[in-house]
Amino acid sequence: MAKEKDNTLRLKFDSSRNLAPALESRSAAKIDSKYDLFINGKFEKPDSKKYFDTINPADEEKLSEVAEANEADVDKAVKAARNAYDKTWKKMPAKERAKYIYRIARIMQEKARELAIIETLDAGKPIRESRDFDIPMAANHFFYYAGWADKLEYAFPNRKANSLGVAGQIIPWNFPLLMAAWKIAPALATGNTVVLKASETTPLTAMKLAEIIQEADLPPGVVNILTGAGTTGAAIVNHPDVNKIAFTGSTEVGKIIQRAIAGTDKKATLELGGKAANIIFEDAPLDQAVEGVINGIFFNQGHVCCAGSRLFVQESVFDEVIRKIKDRLESLIVGNPLDKNTDIGAINSRAQLDTIHKYIKIGINEGGEMFESSCALPSKGFYCRPTIFTNVSQSSRISQEEIFGPVLAIQSFRTDDEVIEKANNTPYGLSAGVWTDKGSKIFNLTTKLRAGVVWANTFNKFDPTSPFGGYKESGFGREGGLHGLSPYVHLGSY
Amino acid sequence: MTKKISIPDFSIPSRIDQVGVEERASRFTKRSIKNETKTNGLLLTLNMIDLTTLEGKDSEGKVKQLCSKAMHLHEAYPGLPTVAAVCVYPSMVKTAKKALGNSGIKVASVATAFPSGQSSAEIKLLDTKLAVDDGADEVDMVISRGRFLQGDYNFVFDEIAAIKEACGKARLKVILETGELVTLDKVRKASDIAMYAGADFIKTSTGKISPAATMPVTLVMLEAIREFYYKTGIQIGMKPAGGISKSKLALHYLVMLNETLGEDWMNNHWFRFGASSLANDVLMQLMKQRTGVYQSSNYFSND
Questions:
Q1: How many residue pairs from chains A and B have C-beta atoms closer than 8 A?
Q2: Measured between CB atoms, does A296 come within 8 Å of chain B?
Q3: What pLDDT, in 10s, does the model give residues B2-47?
Q4: In chain A, which segments carry CATH 3.40.605.10?
Q5: CATH superfamily, region B35-289
Q6: Rounded distance between C-alpha atoms, residue A343 and residue A22, angstroms
Q7: Contact (Cβ atoms closer than 8 angstroms) between residue A7 and residue B82
Q8: Which CATH number fits domain A26-272+473-492: 3.40.605.10, 3.30.70.920, 3.40.50.10770, 3.40.630.30?
Q9: A287 close contact with B: CB closer than 8 A
Q10: Which residues of chain B have pLDDT under 70?
C-alpha cells in the first residue's frame, strides 16, 4: 500500500500569550498637556501654583500634569460648593436634579471609548476591563441614582430625607472613574454638593468627568473636582464647612480621618482595606471555582479592596485545585494594558510595585511556597507576574495583611467550622466567596462569615442596585443601592 | 505516560456551574485575533474541518464532488492545507475512500443507527463493521440518549466499549448529542463515560438536533478531556459539530482550545470542526487577509 500522506498541519496558532498585538487606538483619546482645578464650574489655576506629573504605569511616560490643590484651593472649592448648595441645588425640584444626573450618565456613555482609553493609560488596567467594566458601571451608577432623586420619599417612607450640605469625597486609584461615580451620584441625587479629590496617580478621568459635568451644564459649584495628594485630602477632611466625608482607601488613612473628625458633627463613610477569603469546598464545581478564584484575585492586577486574596481549599481537592490554578495562571496574558488581549495590565505605580515585591519576599522568607506564571514581562513599566503561595498559615503576614496586588495566599482546611473560623480571623471584613454545589452550605456560611458582601459560586460581581461596604477595619457605611442613599441624608419628620 | 486507569463511579452527579461556564466561554470571545495570528488560525481551522455531508439525498456524485473540494479547497490560494476528513454515511465510505486516494485526507463515517441511535446492539455493530470494512478511518457513533437519560450509564458505557472494539484500527468519535442532554452536568457525565469506555474523540452533536455545538458545551467537554488527561495521561480529541459556520466563531473555538488544553491539542489529530459551510467562510477570510478585500461567495466553489 502506498504510504499515506500526512496532511496534519503543525502550525502554531501562537501560544495564547503571543497573539498578534490588538491595540486600542490611543489617538481616540484627547489628553491635555495640563489640567487645572475644577472649581465653581470653571477650570482654575491652583493657588499653590504647583503642578505634578501623572504617568502611564505601562511605560513610565508622562501623560499630563495636574494641579496640586492647597488649603486655599480647598477652601475656594468648599465655598463654591456651599454657595451652590444654598443658592441653587438645595432649592431645585428633585426631578430637575435628576435630569442633570441623567445627562452626566448619557454623556459618559457617549464618551465611553475615550474614557476607557484614558483610564487604561493612567491607571494601567487592561482595556478589556475599563471598556467592559469600569466605564459602563460608572455610567450605570449615575443612571441608577438619577432614578432615586425624585423618589426619596419612597426610599425613606414617612420620613423626610434632608440633604446634608457639602460632601467632601476622597477616592482611590484602583477604579478612578468608577469610584468618582460611586461618590458623586448618590450625593447629587440626595441634594448635596460635592468637593471631590481624585487620587494623585490617576487624576485624568476625574478631570474628564469635570469636562462632562461642564458640558452637562450642571450649575457651577455643585461638583468641584480637585487634584492633589494626602495634604489636599487632609484639607478637605479638616475644613469646618464640610458636612460629610466619604472616603475610599487604605485602613491607615481611614483611621487618621476618623481621628480628625472626632468631635465634629461631620458624617462619614469609610470603605477601606480587605483580605477576603475565597472558600472552595470539595463539592464545588471545581473548574468554575478556579476561574472565579483567578478573577477574584487577578482582576485589576489585584488592586481591588474586595479581592479574594486568601484562598481556602478543602483538603480532599487541594492538589487538584492547585494544579488547575497553576495551569490557568499560565494562560493569563500579562502586558500592555491597551492591548485588547491583555488579562493583567500594569501595577498602578512604582510605590505599589515595591510594596508587592516586599510582600512576595516576606512570603518566601516565611516559608511559603511561591509559584508564579512563567510569562515574560515588558522591559519598561511596572509589571508583576501573577503569583500564588501555598504552605501559608494564618500567622503568615501575606495571609494577614492587604497586599493589593496579584498575590494569592492559599491554605487548606478540613471542616466547615474550621474554615469559618479561619476566614473570620482577620481584622478586615469586606467580602468573601463560597464555592459549593450545596445550597444549605451556602446559607450556613453566609450567615456566619463576617463580611459585607458574600458571593456564592461567583466573585467580584457588582451592580449599582447592590450595597457594598465592610465590617470591622474594612470600614462602615454602605455605597450602592438603596443603602447608598442613607449616608447622604439626615432623616426628619414631615 | 499512561497511568493506571480506575473507572469512576458514574452514579455520583457531576458538578458544573452553568453561569460560570457561560462566563468563561464568553471571555474567549473577547480575544482579539489579528494579522498573522488570524491567518495561522484560519489555516489551522481549514486543516481541522471534517467536511460533512449527511443527507438522505446524498449520491455518489455529491460525495465525489465533496472529496474534490476537500483536496482542492481553493486553487486561487496556493499552498492551502487540505481539510482533515470527509464525513459521510457508511454507504458512501467506499466512494469517498476511492475519491480521496492517498491524499492523506481521512474518511469518517457515521454509524450506529445515526442520528437517533434507536436500534439494536447487533444492528449498530453491523453498521460499524460495514463502515470499517469499507475502509473508514474514523467512526462517528451516537450514544443511546434515551438509556443515558434514564440513568442506565452501564448500558451506555458497554455499548461504546463494544463499538470501540468493532472499530479495530479506526478512531472512534463518540457523539453525545448535547442538544438532547440539555444540562451541562449531563454533558460532563456523558463525556466521562465516553472517554472511560474508549472513545478517541468526543463530539458534541449530530447536526440534526438544535442546539448543536455551543461554546459553553464545548468548554465543558474540553475540561472533561483535561481532567481525564490529568488522571490517565491519555489524550482525547474533541469535535464540536454543527452550528459553526463563521470564521470568527471558529477562531474563538481555537482560543478556547488553546487556553484550556494547550498546544498539544492544536492540530487535526486532536481537534476537528464538524462543518459543511465553514470552509468557504474561512477561505473568504483568508483571501481577504491576502488581498485586503472581500470577494463574493460566487468566487468560492460550492460543493
A1: 112
A2: no
A3: 667 899 999 999 999 999 999 999 999 999 999 999 999 999 999 9
A4: 26-272+473-492
A5: Aldolase class I (3.20.20.70)
A6: 13
A7: yes
A8: 3.40.605.10
A9: yes
A10: 1-3
